[in-house]
Model the fold of this input.
Amino acid sequence: MNNNQSLILLGVGGGGCQYVANVKRLYDGPLNALGLDTDQHAIGNLDGLRATLLGGPRLEGLGSGGDLVKGRMAMKDTTEIVQSELEGVRAAVIVTTLGGGTGGGATPELLRTLRKMEIPTLCFALLPFSFEPAERRNLAERVLPQLDENADTVVVVDQSDLWQRADALDKPLPEAREQASAYFSKGLTLLWRLLFYPGFIRFDPARLLALIASRGRARLYLSEATGPDRATTATAQLINQINQAAVSAPPRAVILGISGTEDLRLAEIGTVMDQLSTALPKGCRLDMGTVLTASEQGSLNLATLLFETWEESPGNAAITDPNATTSGLSAPKKGRTRNAARTSKLGYSTGRGRFRDIEPTIFNGEDLDIPTYIRKYITL
Ligand SMILES: Nc1nc2c(ncn2[C@@H]2O[C@H](COP(=O)(O)OP(=O)(O)OP(=O)(O)O)[C@@H](O)[C@H]2O)c(=O)[nH]1
Ligand SMILES: [Mg+2]
Done:
């Protein structure tokens, strides 16, 4: 099993599949992704995304027509095929658009299947645009509690907010769609990049699994800046977004991904970490990783996931997932259930795990070690 396949990205319904197809197209590396929809025609229009038709004979590939029950039944009809696609998967990221019958009806059922298979789930639920009929939003609101109940972590993203933040509201539609997808894609693929293409500071995969399994809501924020003060500017943008959001609970744990090109400097990482950790509430745990990309010369990108229900426990801190290998997301060993792993073993590594891939800074034959302003954020 290739490690890239141990994490899967699933799109559900017409909109969810479109987002995932765009993410896959925009991501510069192998990404294990699958679309799930009841509409054969919509599946045919997915550019480069493998997709499974849900509820074949029941709906004859014509979609659910906005019917949540049909969406749910279609997923039930196709459970075995979907399960076979998930063999060996260690964690699933789901993107669903709510407002229609497939996204709204099939997603809770899919999450139940994933839970039975003991696969931790991070579910991005995109709400209808504010200009869409009120019934769509009402339908979406009805589905959210079912997502909360069946997913491990739910990230609710308002599509109008997303397009506004991506500066796409005023653009012609094809361009706007591209821009909004690119923006979302950067945040979403952060996890893949952090785990599979780390640069300098690696994010601990066991830690990611523990955070996803924490059962609750999370929020996604992204920022980008160029120029000599890009670290300060991008961090200020991020903090601004975090502070402006109407939230139900303050963050308890944060994953920060810093991505830049070869010109990313250690001092910039320090600036981001100093400013962000100062802005976060006391006791909020901040974990980070860096990614070096070849594209987007000169820009520094920040992506954060803020978890609202993380509980730091001595058990978590002390136990390392025995299934986690160097890359941490390999298939679980047979013969023990992942439920057990989730409740008692899915802590984060307390060894020098995250320093594994850091090249020592050698100067005049001496290892200068990690600067303290970086090291103080990292648990040894
Ligand atoms: N950004 C974007 N959003 C979309 C797209 N298609 C649908 N949506 C959003 O997704 C919501 C649900 O619509 P669909 O995804 O088409 O519905 P579905 O889940 O396929 O369900 P049915 O078509 O009723 O079976 C809509 O209200 C829109 O907000 C798309 O191509 N791009
Ligand atoms: Mg549809």
Notes: The pocket of magnesium ion (ligand 2) is lined by residues 13-14, 39, 42, 63, 100, 102 (CB under 6 Å). The two ends are 30 Å apart (CA to CA). The chain has 16 helices and twelve strands.
